[in-house]
Amino acid sequence: MNTHHHLPCPCGSGTSYVGCCRPLHLRHILPPTAEALMRSRYSAYVLHLIDYIIATTVPAQQTFLDAAELMQWSSETEWLGLNVISHKILGKDHAQVEFEAYFRDGQHRSAHHELSGFVNIGGQWYFIDPTVPLPTMKQPCICGSGKKFKACCGKYLKPVA
Ligand SMILES: [Zn+2]
Ligand SMILES: [Zn+2]
């Protein structure tokens, strides 16, 4: 179990796992940016650290996540790498990270292209999960900002153009 710590980090940063995503996975440090969070979530999928995936999703959304289902999906997927395309800071508390995650699909190498939204709540970055039930645009935002969803996190859940 300790042998992979000195191997390159699964997120593709070019540094070792111990010097990259591991301190985040152990919750020794918080991800300084949404990109760092996104990278650490990718490597958590590779290493099947589902607790980390759940803990780094917007707290109000965590109840909708199925740990067993996420574990099965991460275990059955053969992950081949990550390419972060862009990282945009949007206003005071939001960011978007565009990336491609590569995986094997039968005989083929496939890419999952995504523009993910992130929100900073109380100094900590969280992933906004677009796949769980979301409030309507006029309801209060999931992040607890007190704004309407459409004027807050809802703005950053746009499909890749
Ligand atoms: Zn990493
Ligand atoms: Zn919000």
From TrEMBL:
Task: Tell me the InterPro entries matching this sequence.
Answer: NTF2-like_dom_sf, SEC_C_motif, YchJ-like, YchJ-like_M
Q: Which residues form the YchJ-like middle NTF2-like domain?
A: 33-129
SUPFAM superfamilies xref list:
NTF2-like, Sec-C motif
Report the sequence similarity comment from the record: Belongs to the UPF0225 family.
Family matches, as HAMAP family = UPF0225
PANTHER family from the UniProt entry: ADENYLATE CYCLASE-ASSOCIATED CAP C-TERMINAL DOMAIN-CONTAINING PROTEIN (PTHR33747:SF1), UPF0225 PROTEIN SCO1677 (PTHR33747)
Q: What is this protein called?
A: UPF0225 protein ABM124_03875
Species classification: Bacteria, Pseudomonadati, Pseudomonadota, Betaproteobacteria, Neisseriales
